[in-house]
Write a structure and sequence with these properties.
Strand 2 (41-46) and strand 3 (49-55) form a beta hairpin. The chain has helices at residues 20-34, 59-66, 85-95, 119-134, 186-196, 215-231, 242-251, 257-276, 295-298, 387-400, 404-409; strands at 2-9, 41-46, 49-55, 72-81, 104-110, 145-152, 155-167, 176-180, 200-207, 235-240, 280-282, 335-336, 378-379. With 413 residues, it is α/β, with parallel strands linked by helices.
Length: 413
């Protein structure tokens, strides 16, 4: 015996503009991929709905899959009848067998305007029929049971078992995102929320094996398998992080360890994002949940904000401050976070942080060229000698010299 399955797509897809066909195509392909292997066949297709025929024994598995398929607003088992009121009553009588409910509602949607009855007339006729068969009262709001009738050209569909879908946009329509996956609940929830907005998520998990047990890897695999029910195709990167942890434990002060862990995780995740062609990173941070997720630890080191000018009511230091040439914005290439720098002789002019020049030694993670420290933040061009550029240069080093960690070990990053 076979059954018919009606799948309705997420209502937001109908609000798209000229790119609506692209969204609908991706959503329908995602639904077909979800039902693959169940012996389904496409019976009918509309802009916002799909009608499938599938074996009766495949219905439980199809229901479980569609409940996790993004882009599906709702789905239902339906009976197909001729577009005739008596045929609809016969289908309703068959659907009422063995069912009991305290209240009900009939909802009619007439797409075929050639049908002789209007939607309210269909609802009244079928509602009187059901009330006469069951004795249950009609309740338009909060009914226990709702029967939906769709009158189409050449056929009518009666929904007998209706279930909600997860909604959301189909995966991939909003680009690709790399999400950092931990063993907690926040990061997989963040990944799921991105999936619902159409992002194709690539997962990255940092594990401490063999420094610690491999339990976190297995947990990450289990979380990825659960998230794959929504995206159907999911890639998980397992990154060994124990070597980085060893260096940080040996070289860095205790108070900076967690922040440095997070910093290097983001740098590795950024490299993975470039390889994957992703446009964003998702960290799943929850403000105030732990000490490493406070605003001070989440906020990257920045220079003081430039003075705001050029607006009515600005209180500048003088008329000259209203000109763009007097602004102090960061200049491209002045600061470079990844370029290694050889140590300088402290005896040279400007040879250390206290002199207003780059630090004399690098970070704590291994020697660089000729014994230099690791790559760190430094000035990549010759310092300007005058004007706004010089003021920006001095302000940058004033901020950087204030770090207590730099006074001890040199810049960590």
């Amino acid at each position: 015996m076979e059954t018919l399955l009606l799948v309705q797509l997420f209502h937001e897809l109908a609000l798209k503009g000229k790119n609506r066909p692209f969204f609908l195509k991706r959503a329908k392909a995602h639904v077909r991929r979800a039902l693959k292997g169940l012996g389904v066949a496409l019976e009918g297709e509309w802009p916002m709905a799909l009608l499938f025929r599938l074996p009766e024994e495949a219905w439980p598995e199809a229901k479980a899959r569609l409940q996790d398929t993004l882009g599906v607003e709702r789905f239902a088992r339906v009976h197909r009848t001729p577009p005739d009121l008596e045929a609809l009553k016969a289908a309703l009588e068959k659907a009422l067998e063995g069912q009991a409910f305290g209240s009900f509602r009939i909802t009619a949607k007439r797409s075929d305007k050639a049908f002789p009855l209007t939607s309210p007339e269909i609802e009244r006729a079928l509602g009187a029929f059901v009330k006469g068969k069951t004795g249950a009262p009609v309740r338009l709001k909060g009914a226990e049971r709702e029967f939906v009738v769709r009158v189409l050209p050449g056929a009518a569909l009666l929904e007998v078992e209706r279930h909600p879908g997860p909604g959301g946009l189909p995966p991939g329509v909003s680009g690709r995102v790399v999400a950092l996956l931990s063993g907690g609940i926040v990061s997989p929830v963040a990944a799921y929320r991105l999936m619902r907005r159409g992002a194709e998520v690539v997962l990255v998990h940092f594990h401490p094996f063999p420094l610690l047990s491999g339990a976190s890897r297995e947990k990450a695999k289990a979380l990825a398998e659960r998230l794959a029910r929504f995206q159907h195709r999911l890639r998980l990167h397992l990154v060994p992080f124990s070597e980085v942890q060893r260096h940080i434990i040996v070289e860095a002060p205790t108070a900076y360890r967690v922040v440095l862990y997070r910093r290097y995780m983001l740098r590795i995740a950024e490299a993975i994002a470039r390889e994957e062609g992703a446009l964003a990173l998702c960290t799943g941070d929850s403000l105030g949940q732990v000490a490493s997720q406070t605003l001070e630890n989440l906020h990257p080191p920045r220079l003081p904000a430039p003075h705001r000018v050029g607006q009515r009511g600005d209180r500048g230091r003088g008329p000259e401050d209203r000109h763009l040439r007097h602004l102090h914005p960061p200049r491209r290439g002045v600061l470079h976070p990844l370029r290694p720098q050889a140590p300088r002789d402290p005896g040279e002019a400007g040879g250390g942080p206290r002199d207003g020049g780059p630090p004399a030694h690098g970070g704590a993670f291994g020697p660089g060229p000729k014994g230099a420290g690791s790559p760190h933040l430094h000035l990549a061009r010759k310092a300007p000698t005058r004007g706004a550029g010089r003021r920006f240069y001095n302000g940058a080093w004033t901020c950087l010299r204030r770090s207590a960690f730099w006074k001890r070990e040199g810049p960590p990053l």
